[in-house]
Amino acid sequence: MTATASRHESKTKLLQAALHVIRAKGYSATRIEDICEAAALTKGSFFHHFDSKEALALAAADYWNEITGALFASAPYQRCADPLDRLLAYVDFRKALVAGELPDFTCLVGTMVQEVYETSPTLREACKDSISGHAATLIPTIEAALSQRGMHPDWTAESLALYTQASIQGAFILAKAKHGASMAAECIDHLRRYIELLFNQPRLPA
């Protein structure tokens, strides 16, 4: 293994550790030592790649976007021809991801922004861009569903796309409050029902 490849591997280990530790402990409670321990690397390795915990968090947000972007781009709901079916299948897919322990399914950027929205504008912007960027992937599907059904509502596709994320992030907060996944799954079920009501076409889950 070359030195360059080794540096890349150690950086990836630190980013992967950050994804788990921050979701488990929160951004403020996470120490650089915690990240190093989870990655099985030294603080020297950490500071070779990152100047600070915030620098790591910013890189972790980018890494989160990369891996979740790939996950959603290849998800089964993308193959639904009907746009409303595709939107509802997206919600079903989000529910299917709610499994395991809280750090396994909760959102990295949603976790961080709740703590840093006032204290770290740079990290807040990174979290906002991540959440808004994912919401934007749903806008063409919602617009197509509206067009196909000849609908001209007083709300926009963008507002519904953002609402889906607000609902899902809220579901994660309740899961943390109740320390279990079941409430998050129930909230996502309600999101599905709400979308069905908006389009006035009740359907059973696939």
SS element count, helices: 11
What value does the average pLDDT take?
Answer: 93
- Rounded to the nearest angstrom, the distance between the terminal CA atoms is 47 Å
Question: What's the CATH topology label of the domain at 61-199?
Answer: Tetracycline Repressor, domain 2
- Taking Cα atoms only, what radius of gyration do you get, to the nearest Å? 19 Å
Helix/strand class: mainly alpha
SSE string: HHHHHHHHHHH
Tally of strands? 0
Low-confidence stretches: 3-7
Described by strand count, sense and barrel closure, the largest sheet is: none
Short account of what is shown:
With 206 residues, this protein is mostly helical. Helix content is 74%, strand content 0%. It has a domain at 61-199: Tetracycline Repressor, domain 2 (Orthogonal Bundle).
Detailed description of the structure:
This protein has a domain at 61-199: Orthogonal Bundle (Tetracycline Repressor, domain 2), CATH 1.10.357.10. Helix 1 crosses helix 2, helix 5 (83-96) packs antiparallel against helix 11 (182-199) and helix 8 packs across helix 10. The protein has eleven helices and no strands. Helix content is 74%, strand content 0%. It is mainly alpha-helical and 206 residues long. The termini are far apart.
Give the SSE map:
Blueprint: H1 3-25, H2 32-39, H3 43-49, H4 53-73, H5 83-96, H6 102-105, H7 108-116, H8 121-136, H9 139-148, H10 157-178, H11 182-199
Helix pairs in contact: 1-2, 1-4, 4-8, 5-9, 5-11, 7-8, 8-10, 9-10, 10-11
